[in-house]
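Box 3.1 — From sequence to structure: Phoshplipase D
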Amino acid sequence: MAPHRLRRLIPASVALTTVCAALPTSSAYAADTPPTPHLDSIERSLRETSPGLEGSVWQRTNGNRLDAPGDDPAGWLLQTPGCWGDPACKDRAGSRRLLDKMTRNIADAKRTVDISSLAPFPNGGFEDAIVAGLKASVAAGHSPRVRILVGAAPLYHLNVIPSRYRDELLGKLGSAAGKVTLNVASMTTSKTSFSWNHSKLLVVDGTTAVTGGINGWKDDYLDTTHPVSDVDMALTGPAARSAGKYLDTLWDWTCQNSSNPAKVWLATSNGASCMPSLEKEEDSTPAAPAGDVPVLAVGGLGVGIKESDPSSGYHPELPTAPDTKCTVGLHDNTNADRDYDTVNPEETALRSLIASARSHVEISQQDMNATCWPLPRYDIRTYDTLAAKLAAGVKVRIVVGDPANRGAVGSGGYSQIKSLDEISDTLRKRLVARTGDNEKASRAMCSNLQLASFRSSDSPTWADGKPYALHHKLVSVDDSAFYIGSKNLYPAWLQDFGYIVESPSAAKQLKTELLDPEWKYSQGAASTPAGCSGNGAG
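Predicted structure (token representation):
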């Protein structure tokens, strides 16, 4: 902030001394804290959109530490499979680190373990990591309360049965089972709006958290010759408590609806009742600081949990576009529903993060466009924000999953487009709508856009011939701030969660460990928009 000019030097200095003496000591600390323009901008947007959800769905905290081992400063970044440059993926160091981190965090549990994912339940090596951690916690003399929540798509996940998974876990825990109190649930908040949990969280004691895009599915991530490339992050500090309170919000709904089999299937152990709160009951005790990293935890409630934030005065002018619908489809929550916006602050947060960029935006995503029909094709405001950045000379790099992964409607594949042209053509349309000039739109795209499908080696496919599947939900801006979580940039009305971190040092680690190797290999699959030459922006 620019210094103020003192007009009346002596009286002003006396007044300033008096005021400063009355300020709390935290103000002096704040003056020494590095500026956070990106988080500040996002927080302002959330206070406008969803003020009533602060503390339950979103929360900004200081005093966090990215949770890396002492000998690996970038070890907070957990990538699968972690075999850059090797199409045979013989050494999956990233997957091993993730499983080891899961076990170690759970082993440290003194009171609670909170896990969420998309159905099916964690299996294979993921389940083994959970069991090993719980056994270690019990061996250390603790009796942890454990919640495992998965989102279930109607019909598709009919075989995901919580009681069966509970029994399986108890059997694997053996003698430790009696010391572990389990809640295991699958939930669907709205069948007609395709809404269920999609967050991927491991929160232990409200002090450590792992989150991102990784589902605990052995067949997709571990026991395969073509593993999904994905990323989580680990932290410790007050933002972990924020994640626990978000899960409390989901479990509160789950427990309220546990007697309705159309919405919730619940299984418990040791005669336990449904546990709606693990972290909110601890909220009277301030979360202990663990470092100096500012973090904005932000989630969404999808459809069916809460209709709107009644305290919000948000009144947006919602843009329209004729190509977002493929047929007569569902009500468009993404592009045409102010109330939906107020209970899904993560969507506002991601648009605001992109809007805060001044020099460059790097996006690594499963996809930018949804499965149309039944969902709207794209998020107009996200594309408009990207178009505005391109028009302003901001460099934009987008890497998405190889369209060769395109499968059936919904969960049938790891891509929802037939060609990268679907992304570049949409960007061009939004640029033309913004500038009113085809030539200006072309110049902006040719000068500032890089677009590619994902590769993790020089080979165009894995060694087994399968295309690379990408499941990142990652946005990074200006080598300063980034989002890692479960929320996709394409329309999806699920319950999701992630962290926005503002830390140039952490952003540099992200660039070195993920974004740079990703582009090293993916640029060979870059798409050149119509009318351009080369691979877009340099």
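Summary of the box: The longest strand covers residues 58-66.
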